[in-house]
Design a protein that fits this description.
α4 packs parallel to α6. The chain has a single domain, classed as Four Helix Bundle (Hemerythrin (Met), subunit A), CATH 1.20.120.1760. The two termini are 33 Å apart. Helices cover 74% and strands 0% of the residues. The protein has six helices and no strands.
Length: 203
């Protein structure tokens, strides 16, 4: 049974990826970062077609996010750089879109503060683990579910649906999952701190 604290794992029965397979997942993560300013630009446009285009770019980014992780695991191409760039791309894309949607679509400011606050705490915790335990934490399943729901919330606001019940429902669902996912991350952080406390010194 899958533990929500677990991270999707690479196929260990395969040799580490080489060549383009080794680098493609990370290139896809970088592609998401390159798409970010394009999507943000379309959010600012008043044209009737702009919301659908911006939403399409967000959907494309979410698809690429799933694809790069899938390929990294299938090809056994998970790397330390990938463990950093993938969640970094997630956080920058969500933060950038959320800020623009606050300005142009009325996304609640408090939700963005909650999301960014959690991400900042997770980043600080990850850097601490990296320095003290030589461990690079990976996204877990509850984190991925939370990112998907936040992405759905951003898409709905981008599209200007006018469906207040849908917007508010997704806002509160996102907020709830952000809190729950942070508690899971906190539990995992404490667990990693307690495991192999002398790992770095024994390298």
């Amino acid at each position: 049974m899958t533990n929500l604290l677990d991270s999707p794992q690479a196929k260990q029965d395969r040799p580490p990826a080489t060549g383009i397979k080794r680098h493609l997942p990370n290139l896809l993560s970088i592609t998401r970062l390159l798409l970010l300013p394009v999507g943000l630009y379309f959010i600012t446009l008043p044209d009737s077609w702009a919301p659908l285009t911006a939403a399409g770019i967000i959907v494309l980014g979410m698809f690429i996010d799933g694809l790069d992780g899938l390929l990294a695991r299938r090809w056994n191409a998970i790397s330390d750089f990938g463990k950093l760039i993938d969640p970094l791309a997630d956080k920058l894309c969500i933060a950038g879109a959320a800020v623009m949607l606050i300005i142009y679509r009325g996304l609640p400011l408090w939700l963005t503060v909650v999301i960014l606050g959690r991400d900042l705490l997770i980043l600080i915790g990850g850097l601490y683990l990296r320095s003290k335990r030589d461990v690079t934490p990976m996204s877990n399943y509850i984190g991925k579910v939370t990112a998907f729901v936040i992405g759905a919330t951003l898409i709905v606001y981008t599209l200007r649906t006018g469906l207040a019940w849908l917007e508010q429902g997704l806002v509160w669902l996102s907020a709830g999952l952000v809190v729950v996912s942070f508690l899971f991350y906190l539990r995992g952080f404490v667990k990693l701190l307690r495991e192999n406390p002398d790992a770095k010194e024994n390298r």
